[in-house]
Known about the structure:
Elements: E1 2-20, E2 26-46, E3 50-54, H1 66-78, E4 83-89, H2 100-115, H3 122-132, H4 134-141, E5 144-148, E6 153-156, E7 164-169, H5 176-180, H6 198-208, E8 217-218, H7 221-227, H8 229-240, E9 245-248, E10 255-259, H9 262-275, E11 280-284, E12 291-297
Parallel strand pairs: 1-8, 3-4
Antiparallel strand pairs: 1-2, 1-12, 2-4, 2-5, 5-6, 7-10, 7-11, 9-10
Amino acid sequence: MSHHWRSYAKINLYLDVLRRRRDGYHNIETVFQSVSLYDELTFSELPEDIVLTCSRPELDTGSSNLICRAAALLKESTGCTKGAQIHLQKNIPLAAGLAGGSGNAAAALAALNRLWQLELPPAQLLACARKLGADVSFCLSGGTQAATLKGEVLYPMPPLPPVFFVLIHPDIQVSTPFIYTHPLLRRSNARPVAGFSSSFRRALRALKESRWQHLVFNAMEVPAFSEYPQLAELKGQLVKQGCDAAAMSGSGPTLFGLFDLCEKAEQAIAFFRQQYPSLGCTLVQPSSKGVAYFRESFSEP
């Protein structure tokens, strides 16, 4: 019996970088949004080992992969001795600022909890997710959520109205540690009151009122655009195509434009495919989930 799951990509509608922490990480304030682009994962039980395969041969499928780390963490924390055969059909671009790997890890936690009949409650799965990475915590539940500290403290927000996102995927490798240490990165000196800074409170009001131009923001754009001017050019083209707001997701390189009408988003997709044929571009909508159980089958992964 094989269990089929989906893990959804995320974008950052808002991302501000606060002070550096003693552990070397930075506190952030962000608004996560799941979108309808997803990877597909198939799980079937093995006697003991964790075996991961992937549709993208360049992806490391060894013990350092977040999926394998999630499985190992579950086994260690529960004493489970079972194994699993896992196949990953990779549709989300690699290292794109879309939390593809984090979503895969979240799906592994949820799927193996079910496959191995561990019956761990959501709070315990969330504790495991936090050990794997800040984005993994969000990806377990997904939807629209504000987040603080490293991104692991989550505040569910009302879902977005029907909007459309055009995702642009440049063939550029952006190092997250490099962006965090870049001299042009503006770190906010705001001192949050009751959890949120005043600028983040304004952004959350804009979110609730669908004032996209007052919400969409990414502090990492300045250093990223200074190193990769093509990203600034592509964002400008998204704006010219009539989106309501545009930004880079995470540390990049994926950019997104938010459109209120599907027709406008489709026109933008057509423009980019004609003018930038080597670019990847995807039309998506908000997703209410970060991971989802899809179906069972008796076929092999």
